[in-house]
Design brief:
377 residues; alpha+beta; OB fold (Dihydrolipoamide Acetyltransferase, E2P); 10 helices; globular; membrane; YibE_F; YibE/F family protein; transmembrane; transmembrane helix
Length: 377
Amino acid sequence: MIKNKKFQMILSVILLLIFFIILYFFNVKDHYTYKNNSNLEYVKAKVLSVTEETLTEDTTISNLYIGQQKISVELLEGTGKGGIFEVTNNLSRLYNVKVKPGMKVIVSVDKTGTQTSPVSIYSYYRAPVSIALVFIFFALLTLIGGRKGVKAILGLCFTLICIIFLFLPMIIKGYSPILSAILVVILTTFMTFVLSNGYTIKTLSAILGTIFGVTFAGIIAYLAGNLANLSTLNTDEIETLILISSDTSMNVKGILFAGIIIASLGAVMDIGISISSAINELHTINPKLTHKSLFMSGMNIGKDIIGTMSNTLILAFTGGSINLLILLYSFGMPSSQLFNLDVLSIEIVQGLAGCIGVILTVPITAILTTFLMDKAK
């Protein structure tokens, strides 16, 4: 669509400047701080020794020990760096961080000094594993994907920036969660596809198809949620969210549906670019194909994709709720109770709304791609 490389570069710079202006305008200057944690500092520490240990193996869960450890730790960072403290580490089924000499852990430090023990064990030090996985992911993506892989990394980083520095601050400042999610969808979709395919008809049709598909998923989730009397108020985190909203302008009720929009974006983007690329390739190979032939080809390809894509979404939501499903199965609830539970109804709406968005993206993208190619002639 835009073949001039210099013009593409200038346009990209202008769009990035606009994005950073939007980012600056919406970003929260003073982040909300959870009151109960304002006097705690979480830092890395090293276990020097275990001076006393009274542990018994759990009778139900293998390799789980319950009891108490008395340990000595050295703070490796923070205001008390270098300090050595004697800590009592209590282990239970819910909070269980069994340590040994030389291990690095995360501890919470009471900065007020009012507690009997100013330092307590918080969690294992897991950051190196996470960083290593990210490095492996980026390395494989670059090695196998080449330039496309590098562009995919840039697109992913841009998406994360949008979510962390735009979407979340907008919600806390009181903007509509649903409209905030749609804005993030538009920005991330545009940047991801432009990075991968440039300013082409294929890119434009994939962007429009994705935006329409995700929007329909959000609308369906919103309508189904209202009919079923579902909202963020039915989720487990509602008490904490209400606490935050009492000190901010956050609109709690729409967060559930904003999450559904964001969750369905990946699958809808995938199917949008797949249909657009397929029709573009067919048109390139045989420019004589009619508008109707291109559309039907896109639909036939889409029919093969929607089954696996719907499975992808349903399995993603199922995997994220596997603990809940095990509990429901174990309790043996009657169907009248089971299918009217808040948590199960939310999972059903999330999964099926995303699948409907995926299905609708196929004809929408096929129509847009063939229409834009026809106009380009």
